[in-house]
Amino acid sequence: MYKFIGMLAVLVVLAGCAKDPVYLESLQQGEHLLRSEKAVQFYEKYYEYPQHKAFAQSKNGSLRAYASYKTNEIYAIEDALARCNTGVLKYVDKLTLKDSCEVLNINNEWVIDGTEKAKFIRFLEKAKIALGSDFGLEKYESYYYESGHKAFAHSKVDRTTAYVASQSDKNMAAKLALDKCYDGLLEAHPEMTAADACEIAIIDNEWANIKSDITKSSKYKADVKRANKVIKNLNARKMFESYYRKPYHKALVQGKNTLHLAYSTNKSSAKLAIDTALSKCHENLLKEYPEITDEISCEVINVNNEWVTSEN
After folding, report:
1. Do residues 228 and 181 both lie within one domain?
2. Residues contacting residue 131 through CB under 8 Å, at least 6 positions apart
3. Does a structural domain hold residue 312?
4. Can you tell me the distance from the alpha carbon of 243 to that of 250, in angstroms, rounded to the nearest whole number?
5. Domain membership flag for residue 286
6. In 3D, which of 40, 49, 45 has the Cα closest to residue 9?
7. Which of these three, 76, 109, 132, is where a domain ends?
8. How far apart are CA 265 and CA 248, in angstroms?
9. Number of independent structural domains in the chain
10. pLDDT, the chain, mean
11. Which domain holds residue 79?
């Protein structure tokens, strides 16, 4: 398969571009993974970069990316997948396992399916797709190598995760993981019920059938009703679901006596999210009004999916 690779290797040697026999051996080992001459040329460039590094390619072989100069393998894997999947998202609305990228090489070593290393890498790839890009891979690495029966739970409304391990029973592991995840949510969401809080994503190292959608929770439905009363701009209400799905910390603001709406997400603190959202809103106001006053200004209505204003 892909006999052009052998021919390319010969041409590379004759041209004096790659005299390292170790590189040529590596190229031959990856013959079944690289799907085009362009991919081979891309790999040659990647091969020369220092560790830690990773090489990722889309399932159909049309897109590829690499990351290098990382402090550990996990960071290299995460960065390479993020870059490659960003390219995929230019052609699809939502990432799926079928469309997404997979890691083919780590630090000049090929990831061969069927090996323990490959099982671990494929586990990480699914974690990124199943639970979203807001979750880092280090926690999944720690969980993957835990012993005994174990379970991994994640929040339905934000980036909270929790897991337990070293249990004698799967059901007990699942219960404890859900309880731990719920406890982690209570500070930010004191009114949330356990049923709406978290769900099990992984039991031992097997993925559960994740069906949750934040928009299916009773809290979200109640918040939409609240939004329909609080948000004055009818056309802007559809922005609420987009805001609601965004990662913490975040804030939603609107004009006190105008229809302006703005939000800020994925900030390091609630205060920074609020300040950024207010700044956006006021900037938009100044396009229509000469100055910000008590009457012509913006106010915070929601922080981290919690309302901070009355319905009336």
Report:
1. no
2. 154, 161, 201, 210
3. no
4. 8
5. yes
6. 40
7. 132
8. 6
9. 4
10. 84
11. 53-132
- Are the CB atoms for 74 and 137 separated by under 8 Å? yes
Measured CA to CA, the distance from residue 122 to residue 129 in angstroms comes to: 11
Q: Are residues 237 and 298 in the same domain?
A: yes
- Token readout for 51 is 């560790």
Last residue of a domain, one of 80, 97, 132: 132
Question: Could you give the C-alpha distances from 281 to 26, 121, 256, 260, 271, in angstroms and in order?
Answer: 55, 43, 11, 7, 15
- Strand arrangement, sheet containing 298-303: 261-264, 251-255, 298-303, 306-307
Residue 243 lies in a domain: yes
Inform me whether the pLDDT recorded for 225 exceeds 90: no
Identify whether the C-beta of residue 87 lies closer than 8 Å to the C-beta of residue 116: no
C-alpha separations of 229 from 9, 216, 225, 254, 301 in Å: 67, 20, 7, 13, 12
How open is the CA angle 128-202-197, to the nearest 5 degrees? Answer: 85
Structure confidence by residue, pLDDT tens digits, 140-162: 999 999 999 999 998 877 778 89
Q: Decide if 43 contacts 10 (C-beta within 8 A).
A: no
Please tell me the predicted confidence (pLDDT) of residue 130. Answer: 78
Do 94 and 79 share a structural domain? Answer: yes
Most confident of 117-121, 262-266, 302-306: 117-121
Instruction: Residue 162: name the closest of 216, 200, 212, 219 by CA.
Output: 200
Measured distance CA(22)–CA(121) in Å, rounded: 24
Q: Say if residue 245 is in the same domain as residue 289.
A: yes
Task: Please indicate, yes or no, if residue 250 is contained in any of the structural domains.
Answer: yes
Answer yes or no: do 29 and 72 share one domain. no
Task: Give the whole-angstrom CA distance, residue 5 versus residue 187.
Answer: 57
